[in-house]
Amino acid sequence: MAYRFLHTADWQLGKPFAGFGPERAAQLQGARLEIIPKLADLARREGAADVLVAGDVWDQLEPSDALLRRTLDRLGEQKGVRWWLLPGNHDHYRDEGLWQRLQRIGLPPNVELLLDGQPRELAQGVTLLSAPLKGRRAGRDLTEGFEGRAFEGAVIGIAHGGVQAFGSGDDAGVIDAERAEKAGLAYLALGDWHATKQAGPRAFYAGTPEADDFRTTDQGNALIVDLADADNPVSHRISRYTWSAQQERLSPGEKPDELMDRLFPSGQRLDETLMRLTLTGSTEIAARSAVDEALNEAQDRLFHLDLRTKELSVTADAENVEELLGDGVLGRVARKLAAMQDGPDADEARAALRELTKLARQA
Predict the structure, then answer these.
(1) Helix, strand or coil for residue 74?
(2) Residue 257 has what pLDDT?
(3) Would you kindly state where each structural domain of the chain is located, as residue ranges?
(4) Which of 95, 104, 150, 358 is at 20 to 30 A from 20, Cα to Cα?
(5) Per the database record, which ranges form the Calcineurin-like phosphoesterase domain (predicted)?
């Protein structure tokens, strides 16, 4: 069947981004609102009139009226695109909750809420079945209700939740990864997992369209789905910010500029990059000083740098200690600290060596 739509989820508008400070948190929050016109542009470009948002449109159950109005304004501005919004676990449906507030504010004509699980017509011969969450935990697989229902043409399902349990008590709400197959769905649009991935036959997570986590790879995408080839949706990256978790093992003799070239390839927008960098291995005391200096410069250019060097040891032979700290008291202290890195006070010794190299740079 010749029908295309855009699958997205987990916008989590209003996410607080605690720990980044007010200015940077506001920038990250703003980027999440900016995904709305980006998604609309992608949908129009790809000939997809419908955008299915598989839950967690908002990050909290009680977003401010200001955020709700700004969201509706942006959705309503996108002509030629129809938005289908499903409650997720962060913004689940409840009596007199945010979904009723939206209705009282007034929905733009191109915004549809999927609150009652009733079938909706997307296009002639294309039916949408939804499984809105009415609590943070479903308590059962809500997609079971997709089975045993007969419709003319193609049927698309949309739901929010995991296809595997991650802890005790989660089993009851796990979505069957084979649901599209069992219910005869042309496609199952899922939300909850923040990476883009296939969950089962014709069942996919779109992931969050604006990356927000160091631990999860392949974020920041939206999926264009063509029912003629529903097992192969096309992923499009639209995220503004890149969250990168890097681990580098250093060895004595390695040049700091080689490390920087690996970490920051030419052309990368550092001011839109958040990096968690873990350095392990060992480096000479003079090279450590140069690495710190290069990373300080990178930190000034990056949007955010979370640097972890607890497991990076420093070698301090007589020649390079004298070159950096001289042959006086500081040099003798450095050699003693270097020897302590293999003992019970290794963490404290490494921290003290870091401070010594900072003193050396400032001298």
Answers:
(1) helix
(2) 84
(3) 4-237, 242-362
(4) 358
(5) 4-96
E-only strand ranges, the chain? 4-8, 50-53, 82-85, 111-113, 120-123, 126-131, 154-160, 187-191, 197-200, 203-205, 221-226, 234-237, 242-250, 273-284, 304-308, 312-315
Q: Which two tokens stand for residue 20?
A: 């980044």
What mean pLDDT comes out for the span 31-60?
A: 98
* pLDDT score recorded for residue 351: 74
Residue type, 62: E
User: Which tokens sit at 203?
Assistant: 């069942």
CA quadruple 48, 160, 197, 189: dihedral positive or negative?
negative
The CATH number given to 4-237 is: 3.60.21.10
Count other C-beta atoms under 10 Å from residue 192's C-beta. 22
User: Hey, which residues does 313 pair with through a beta bridge?
Assistant: 282
Burial class, 326, CB count within 10 angstroms (exposed 0-12 / middle 13-18 / buried 19+): middle
C-alpha dihedral sign at 111, 116, 120, 126:
positive
As a whole number of angstroms, the distance between CA 6 and CA 15 comes to 23
Which tokens in the block code for residue 222?
Answer: 């939206």
Is residue 69 within a helix (H) or strand (E), and if so which, with residue range? helix 65-77
pTM of the model: 0.88
Q: Report pLDDT for 65.
A: 96
d(CA 277, CA 296): 13
Beta pairing partners, 224: 6, 234
d(CA 133, CA 94): 9
Per-residue confidence (pLDDT) for residue 355, from 0 to 100: 72
> What is the average per-residue pLDDT within 240-262?
89
